[in-house]
Design a protein that fits this description.
Layout (H helix, E strand, L loop, with lengths): L2 H8 L3 H31 L4 H38 L2 H28 L1 H8 L6 H14 L1 H15 L4 H25 L3 H26 L19 H30 L4 H37 L3 H37 L3 H14 L3 H16 L4 H10 L3 H13 L1 H29 L3
Helix pairs in contact: 2-3, 2-8, 2-9, 2-11, 2-12, 3-4, 3-6, 3-7, 3-10, 3-11, 4-6, 4-7, 6-9, 7-8, 7-9, 8-9, 10-15, 10-16, 11-12, 11-13, 11-14, 12-13, 12-14, 13-17, 14-15, 14-17, 15-17, 16-17
Length: 448
């Protein structure tokens, strides 16, 4: 880490440091979501609910790739920033190498496994004879071929953020997103490849982003601790345990989200493919607010980790307080906008009355979870940045795949499709209550 980046962590005003780290991360997350939304948007312009439904059905196992990026990216970022706070560059370098090669190997195995297990997985996700072929085409390119570049582009962004290169991390993710938005209509409409074209565009965009980060890290060899050299791969000094245990909550959060979405799609499949498509549109739109909250919290991990490891508790608390204010105010704005514009925005995605109607109703319900989601993210990141394992694991488990599924089934019986959607805000606000209690306990034990 060069002196200017270290100065951002230790000397710049708290507001400047928070904005310098959070804003580029938020932008990269937003662009990432927008280019994922682009698939749904451009596929929706085909006015074929079956292809929109197929992309929605396949999305949980594609998004699961983010779990691997979080496992090794957030875990590695936290350890690297804490090592730099202590001045231990050697351990930081070995941590980066372990994270990079482990992430690549695991994502490669996952991509191959998914292709072999399609006959087992697709029915569970809610695919039927009408959507099966579309699902296969989307999964083949985005996961079978694209697993490694998808994971590496997100993971490397996390790792360079640990050294303060938040702008460059945002630029890399943004470049990939913009490329995907450009390629989508070309492959879908010009080459007449429909959903297959959207999948190829996504794979190529993630590959381009991964190549950008590799080039950037190589160009900074003289001052970065991040290394691709296999000779630096090490399982000594508790590096694997530290990375995996800290990154595990992010992995669990995404994994449980995948399970939640799988159950959600499976239940909704009992109604209609239009309902599945409508929920997919609603979740894609809501994911903009989700991305903002995730961007702020992930951007704060290096700053909190550095100040915690260096013993500067006052600066750490000031940083957390500023980030909380930013997260909560942004969450309230997002909720108001989503409630007010749900109908028109949903209809932008598809010219099908039934699908758009479902999307509008679902969006208005799940938008109520925006404030709780953003604050949950912030609290989880505080625990991750300070090396805590148990608290973020508990909170990640509660938010998705446990409470919401437990609420989803009885609410669907009582209120039908709307009840399924209401499970999301109900579970998230319950998890927030637990998160606040854990944070209060943490603050009491870490008073300056």
């Amino acid at each position: 880490m060069d002196s200017r980046k270290e100065g951002l962590f230790s000397e710049a005003s708290v507001a400047k440091a928070v904005l310098a780290l959070a804003v580029p991360t938020v932008i990269s997350q937003l662009v990432n979501v927008i280019y994922n939304m682009a698939d749904t948007f451009f596929i929706g312009q085909l006015n074929d609910p079956l292809q929109v439904a197929a992309a929605t059905i396949a999305m949980p196992i594609f998004v699961f790739l983010t779990a691997f990026a979080n496992l090794f990216g957030i875990g590695g970022s936290s350890l690297i920033s804490r090592c730099l706070g202590k001045g231990d560059r050697m351990t930081a370098r070995r941590a980066s190498t372990f994270a990079i090669w482990s992430g690549a190997a695991v994502s490669l195995c996952y991509g191959i496994l998914i292709l072999f297990l399609e006959p087992l997985i697709f029915p569970i996700l809610g695919a039927d004879s009408e959507t099966w072929h579309h699902c296969h085409q989307y999964v083949f390119w985005t996961i079978g071929i694209g697993a490694v570049p998808t994971v590496m582009s997100a993971e490397l962004a996390h790792l360079i953020r640990a050294e303060g290169y938040s702008k460059q991390a945002g630029a890399g993710m943004a470049a990939g997103g913009i490329l995907n938005i450009i390629l989508d209509p070309i492959f879908i409409f010009v080459f007449d490849m429909a959903i297959t074209g959207a999948a190829i565009a996504t794979m190529l965009s993630n590959l381009a982003a991964a190549c950008y980060f590799i080039f950037f890290i190589h160009s900074r060899q003289s001052d970065t601790v991040i290394s691709f050299s296999p000779s630096g791969f090490s399982v000594r000094d508790g590096i694997p345990k530290e990375i995996i245990t800290v990154g595990l909550p992010g992995f669990i959060m995404t994994m449980m989200g995948t399970i939640s979405n799988t159950v959600l799609n499976h239940i909704i499949a009992g109604y209609s493919n239009s309902a599945i498509a409508g929920m997919g549109i609603a979740k894609k739109i809501d994911s903009l607010a989700y991305a903002i909250g995730q961007g702020i919290s992930q951007g704060m991990v290096p700053l909190i980790g550095f100040t915690y490891a260096s013993g500067n508790r006052k600066r750490m608390k000031d940083s957390i307080r500023t980030a909380f204010i930013l997260s909560l105010s942004t969450a309230c704005i997002c909720t108001i906008l989503l409630l007010a514009m749900a109908g028109p925005v949903a209809r932008l995605f598809i010219d099908d009355n039934e699908t758009a109607s479902y999307g509008t109703e679902f969006l208005r319900i799940i938008a109520l979870a925006c404030p709780s989601t953003m604050i949950n993210f912030m609290i989880i990141s505080i625990f991750q940045a300070t090396g805590r394992k148990t608290q973020p694991f508990i909170l990640s488990f509660l938010r998705k795949g446990s409470l919401d599924i437990a609420m989803m089934i009885p609410l669907s019986h009582a209120f039908g499709l709307d009840g399924i959607a209401w499970a999301t805000p109900a579970a998230d606000w319950t998890a927030l209550a637990v998160a606040i209690l854990l944070l209060i306990h943490f603050r009491k034990r870490n008073r300056a």
